[in-house]
Amino acid sequence: MSVDIVPPDRRECQRCGRRDEWDEAAEKWVIAVEDGERRVGNKHCVHEWDIDGAYNPVEGPRAAGEE
Question: Is residue 11 part of a domain?
Fold first, then answer.
C-alpha cells in the first residue's frame, strides 16, 4: 500500500485576497481569473498563503490510518 502526495492546486492570500492557481503546463503559479478579472490583490503585499498546517498533501490508505 502506498500513499500519494497531492500538492495544492490553488491558494489565496490571507492578507489581500490575491488568488493563484497552479498552471500544470507552465509548471508555476499564475494569478486566478474570476468573472473576467484577475485576482491580483495588493501588489505591495507580502503574501501569506492559506496553505498551512491544516493542509494535508497525503492521500491513500496510510493517510487514513490504515495499514
Answer: yes
**Whether 2 contacts 64, CB under 8 Å:** no
Structural domain of residue 13, as residue ranges? Answer: 4-50
What is the full DSSP assignment across 35-56?
Answer: TTEE----TT----BS-STT--
pLDDT at position 42 is 94
Domain assignment present for residue 62? The answer is no
Q: Residues 1, 66: contact at Cβ < 8 Å?
A: yes
Write down the pLDDT at residue 56.
81
Report yes or no on 32 lying in a domain: yes
What confidence tier does 38 reach under pLDDT thresholds 50, 70, 90? very high
